[in-house]
Write a structure and sequence with these properties.
Elements: H1 2-17, E1 50-53, E2 63-66, E3 72-75, E4 79-82
Antiparallel strand pairs: 1-2, 3-4
């Protein structure tokens, strides 16, 4: 009798667990004016953007910084590069 009772309780728990929990699991509809994901090809660099610049095979040259108000980024061994208006891809 105990085994049957345990099996009944276990099957009820499995049945209840398979149902969604309600509004928390449903996706919220996108609100008007909400920010949407932008692909890398559509992202254009502008002044005051945070940039991470990785140099392949030379981690000592890897830098993180902000694009200057004139749209340039300063890198060691290269100097200033115009980044504003370019895409990240």
């Amino acid at each position: 009798m105990r085994v049957v009772k345990r099996l009944a309780i276990a099957s009820m728990l499995l049945a209840v667990a398979s149902f969604p929990l309600g509004a928390a699991e449903r996706e919220a509809p996108l609100q008007e004016g909400a920010a949407q994901a932008v692909s890398e090809a559509e992202c254009v660099i502008g002044p005051r953007n945070q940039q991470n610049i990785d140099v392949w095979k030379d981690p000592s040259l890897t830098r993180s910084g902000i694009v200057l108000p004139d749209g340039k980024v300063a890198l060691p061994m290269v100097g200033e590069i115009i980044a504003a208006g370019k895409t990240v891809a």
